[in-house]
Design brief:
Layout: H1 2-20, H2 27-38, H3 52-55, E1 60-64, H4 68-71, E2 79-83, H5 84-90, H6 95-100, H7 104-118, H8 127-134, H9 143-165, H10 174-179
Antiparallel strand pairs: 1-2
Length: 180
């Protein structure tokens, strides 16, 4: 409850800031503003400062650190800001996969830029955790199969538990659920 209240106060503060900037208060703008503050108003990929005009112009995008298509992680902890051109270039790769191909020096530069961006621990204590995710060198591509196994297991356990209450419990395959 305390965490929810803290987040509500934070969202109210951000909404006031966005309002003062004469921008629409939307989920996307709130997210961008929070990420902008979190990364010290700097793009962790390019090291370039992001000014407030760029933030709301479309020049800057919300970017998934670990690609959403591979991780299915759409949480705040997997997002940062990035200039749109850099985001397109990075594509469906992790920061390590993309920048290490450009040489060890480039990867070291990206890591130091990201450290600068995410070392803002005073306002966002979880930012350092995000930095650790940013510099991961190994990506667990088996996320989806792990999630499917977890779903199968919980379905089986739920059926067993509910079967004690009601004898007519049926579980349908995931494909049926997907089609529905």
């Amino acid at each position: 409850r305390k965490e929810q209240q803290r987040l509500e106060r934070e969202n109210d503060r951000v909404k006031d800031e966005i309002n003062h900037l004469n921008q629409k208060i939307t989920h996307e703008n709130i997210l961008k503003y929070k990420l902008w503050e979190e990364c010290n108003k700097t793009c962790p990929y390019t090291g370039k400062e992001i000014n407030v005009t760029q933030l709301f112009s479309g020049e800057v995008q919300v970017e998934h650190i670990l690609p959403w298509s591979r991780s299915l992680n759409d949480s705040f902890m997997n997002k940062t800001l990035c200039f749109a051109d850099e985001n397109r270039a990075k594509g469906d790769l992790t920061p390590y996969e993309f920048y290490s191909k450009q040489g060890k020096e480039k990867w070291e530069l990206i890591k130091s830029q990201a450290l600068f961006c995410f070392k803002n621990k005073k306002n966002y204590p979880k930012a350092y955790v995000k930095f650790k995710q940013f510099i991961k060198t190994k990506f667990d591509d088996d996320f989806v199969s792990r999630q499917l196994n977890d779903t199968r297991y919980i379905s089986k356990e739920a059926k067993n538990y509910l079967g004690k209450i009601c004898s007519d419990v049926q579980v349908s395959p995931g494909q049926v659920t997907s089609n529905l």
